[in-house]
Amino acid sequence: MATAVIVPWGTDNGPRERVWTAVRKLWEQTDCDLIVAADPLFAQRGKFSVSRAVNQAVRLAPPEYDRFVIFGADQLPCVRTVEWAAAELDSQPWTLLFDRGFGLSEADTNRWLEDGYRIEPPFTELFSSPCVGPVAFTRATFEKVGGFDERYEGWGYEDVDLWYRLQRDVPRTAAQNYPGTPLVQFWHPVTHHDLSQANPNVRLFAKTWG
């Protein structure tokens, strides 16, 4: 059986596009099998849905792919993490990938793009606790929880919702551990990162899990 890396992607025709062009090039230089996941309703709805994109990608993936590793389009590829996750799925139904990471500023991201994709820390630490966005799971696990909830579209909370359902419906048989590799997050505009009640995803998450 085989492992595929899924990266949800919908263009902003701007800074994220520049980063993704470089990130995709790096993924394609690895031996990883990459699936770029498009949201089939992006143009119609006007909001990109990670849920719809990943659900469709898993559904359409050839049957030999029984393990999937999710990365963001603005995150540095890490083959070591993918290999670790694939091995972890030998005994666990799902796993988070990172418990530490750092974010590049706009200037550092531009420097990375212009200087041949070299990472030169230190950078401002982004987090030192589990990150639920990048995740890996078996096909059977994903099907058991029903995939991502497609009511989430636009920014926020579809990843936390999936994590909650994974823990509830298909719990791990061993404590979560990590490979020790850091998540590297590139800069992108965050004007749409709305944590207020004006964001329908915030209200949906609160209604579902509150």
TrEMBL record:
A Pfam family assignment: Glyco_transf_7C
Source species, domain of life: Bacteria
Ranges for domain Galactosyltransferase C-terminal: 133-168
An annotated Gene Ontology molecular function: transferase activity
Positions in coiled-coil regions: none
Transmembrane segments: none
Keywords, comma-separated and alphabetical: Transferase
Name of the protein in its database record: Galactosyltransferase-like protein
Upper classification of the organism: Bacteria, Bacillati, Actinomycetota, Actinomycetes, Pseudonocardiales
